[in-house]
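Researcher: Structure for this, please.
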Amino acid sequence: MRWVRYIAIAIVNGFGVVIGIIWVAVPTTVAQPSLNYQLALSARQPEAETPQSLSELYKLRDRLKVQLDNLAKTSDSAPFPAELWKSAIHRQQSQTLTQQLQNVQIQIQREEIAKNNWDQAAKLAAQAAEIGRTSNPSSATWEQSQRLWQWAIDTLRLIPHGSFLTDRAIDKTIEYQGNLSVATYEMQVARSIEKVRAEEEEIRERGRKEQEKKEFARREIERKEQEKKDRARKELERQEFQRQELARKELERQEAARKELERQEFEKQELARKELERQEFEKQELARKELERQEAARKELERQELEKQELAREELERQELEKQELARQELERQELARQELARQELERQELERNQQATSQPAPESTATPTPAPVTPAASPPNFFFAGDTNRDGQINDQDEAGKEQWSLSKGALILFNDRNNDRGKIPTWKQTKVSAPRRAAMLSQVNLTLSENFKTSQLFITADSIASPHISVFQKTGDGWQPVDISGAKPLVFSTNIVLGVEAKQFADRNWNGTVNLKATAQNNGQEIASTTIQMGVSPWMIAPNTAPVTEVQVSDRGSVNSEFISQLKQAVEPTGAKVKILQGDRTWMQDNQKNGYVQLPEKSDLRQFNVALKSNSEPEKNPPVKSTQDRDLKVFKIGNPRSLDPVSQWSDGYGNLQVTPPIPGHPMGRVYYGNSGNASFNPEVLDFIQAQRIQGPPVDIDTSWLLTRQVDEIINFIPTQTPGRYVMAIASPEAGVKLLEELEGRGYGDVRINRGLSTQTTVSAALKNRALIQHNLYLQQQKLNPIIEKLKREFLLGDDQIIQVPVMFGYSGYAWWPNMVNSVPVNGKLLVSNPRGPMIDGVDYTQERLRQLLLPAGVSVSFLDDRYYQELKGNVQSATNTVRKPEERPFWQSLPNNLARY
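Model: Predicted structure, token format:
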């Protein structure tokens, strides 16, 4: 049958050629000239001047224009009326030349049209020929070529009759018509071939479908057979599932009963804790009122006699320390009593469970939560279980003593090691599935050493129920670190020298004191034959003060608006040995983004330090953690949830509002202070977290309700001096700002500009004439700043020689009226300060010079930065940057005062 198709194709092809020739019959080859054009050509021209090309027409047109110009000059020079006959002749000649020029211009226009059409037709023909040379062209390709050839022919027909290109257009039209016939023929052939191929494909498709139909029938038979087998298998599985489900529900019922008992016990402990907190708050409130009364009496004595005032102040401080010591001892006594009651209650419950276990068959393994406080007991013989209790970086027999009772000064430490990379999901401590540790180096080691007598025993590790959700335990095996079941359901891999690693999923907070009791138990045939317990605690999170050395300064690249600021920042920072990290597209106020801190862990003959950053909760999807180039293992965590604050207090939770002092008496690692704006203080969850660390608290609140940003770093900053361990406190002083202006006017500089280049630019005299602004700042000094200074002296035990009052002025809404020099950044002996844009006196910024004079006794080097962009946004240098600082070199447990060492 196939040869019949080829004969049919040949007949169709022949028919197509004839149709193509007929279809493209040659019409009128070129356009007929218009009447005007014919008339134009009929104008008389000398035979010698007949042009033969477009360029000759251009020359003829130019020659006629010259003749007309010459004729016009000749006619204008006729002097006598007697020669009027010559003027008539000239006029007739001018008309003849004008008519010839018009005819030439008409012919030029027609020739230009002809040339454009000729070029367009050639371009279309070239495109058609290129398409025809395509390998294996389809019918659509030949159809496109056919259209282009027809378009080229139609374009040639637009060439005017009688033009220079008329004869060539006729020849080219005949040529293109031949090509059009070929394209038409090839299109018909391609269509015929495509039709045959489509028919063959249809036959193959029918055969394939028939084969698929047979295959489907075969598979259907197999499927039905398999369904029978599956139904039988599922029935067996269903019966097995029902049996397992009954067993699971029984286990769940038992587990629910156990959890209910734990919940009730937790509620009892929580009620007791809240009652203690209430009593403590009442005591502190009474003590505060007593201190205020005593402070008023002390001020009265100061006014009467300076020497008596100094003695009275020292006596008051001694009395206050004694009261605090008595209060602490009372708290310790109450806490020990509470722990003793809780221990007795848990021992009673443990005894009841043991009695039940002896009367009923017990499961193969049972989780035994360890109580929070444990009674010291010696380890059974040949059953050593301990961590680095004495914090000397190694585990040996010396770590037996005191291992059951953890405190800030003694006991094995655990590191926070958040392994959760996806911070948009549930927190690490809420995840029930435990994977291998991300960094084994951050595990706190615990050793379990046994004799061969325990070779046939099963070994279990359990944790108390309160701490178990917050820690993970791993066992070091030949296959690496393996998770340990701390519920007591699954035994350890037996070895006579077992190495365990412990990590914390979170720090101590308002819900957990950060301690865990780990119990090691050996069992034979379900009976306990040996056990011992250790207590461990999470290494507290601490903030490095502004006086600590800097390793890195971080700033956000805002484009051209802060490019000069970044350039000056790099010039000031890099010579100090610190790095500048520029972040693209991050938040403007880097200080609010995260608070960089650290944790410590003992190591043999050394101290291990880890950077850990407290991340802001605001806009988490736009607020990724800032990783330090100095520490690729930076840990990041968050506290609580974002708060919905009113627009006035929207910056209260920024971490510029959370600062720490350098080491002060009673707080060798510094003390945290924050801004309190009244109804919207700093995030209470974070403050409770700081308090739970017990190192840099209790936090001191500073009244910032009058500031636009509500942030304490706008008014207070601690600056290191050249003397190691000494510092000064810079505090904003509106009164000093007013006195600076009055001093300038008194010296005859009232017309000098201040706030140069800012939206608040004015003169010294104009500022002083704004009595409302002056009175507002004097009011802030008397009612806000002076009480703050007295509180800081009392809480931080500062002397007047340690306080520097920096001239600042504030607008009515609480923003810095000129760039705030207190909001600065100390970097390795250099202070990065906002350029105050003060009055220029003899080429020197008077306000800058005043700050240099104030800091001169401290030996501080100052670099002023152009932060105009940030000033207009109501912020300055410290708000715009963040720093990574070196941790304290001395271990915190060796620096604790007596009132913290026992906690």
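Researcher: Any notable elements?
Model: The chain is about 45% helix and 15% strand. The first strand starts at residue 383 and ends at 386.
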